[in-house]
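Blinded run. Sample ID left blank on purpose so nobody reads anything into the name before looking at the predicted structure. Input follows.
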Amino acid sequence: MKYTLLLALGLTILSISCSKDKTDPPTGKELLLGTWKQSRVLVLYTPGKTVLSSDTIKTCDANNNWTFDTGSDYSFTSYKSSAAGCVVRNHRAGTYTFDEQAQQLTLSNITGGTRPDIFNVYQLTKKEMWFNLGATNYDGDTTNYLQILVLTRSSKK
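Blinded prediction complete.
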């Protein structure tokens, strides 16, 4: 009886301590939360997702930022050069959805815009988000390549 009680107590303690160690990985929407800034543009050859070029954004565009909050609202602010330095070019706000299965980010604009923008997300981590800006003819041949915008997290919500 004494051993049964000790065994039961030991198993209970073990199961409680092990269950605390398990955490579910964050969902795509949880990874989106926070503010992201443009950092570089990639050109990818799609069959193997081979990076053909990577250009760091050094102009005022590097200040362009997206903020996603927990309530499915987003804002986007873009910047341009002026005599006074980098100034706001455009500000949009709206709602967003993220389809985990399709890896698609849909932005619906509240402030100016009639149709949603849909982006294929190629990578989403705690530090970076890659999404498709469209096809580009990188080297003048008939092959279209993907142009990918890379965002880097600047703050977490």
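Unblinding after everyone has recorded impressions. Strands lie at 34-45, 50-56, 65-68, 73-82, 85-99, 104-109, 117-124, 128-136, 145-155.
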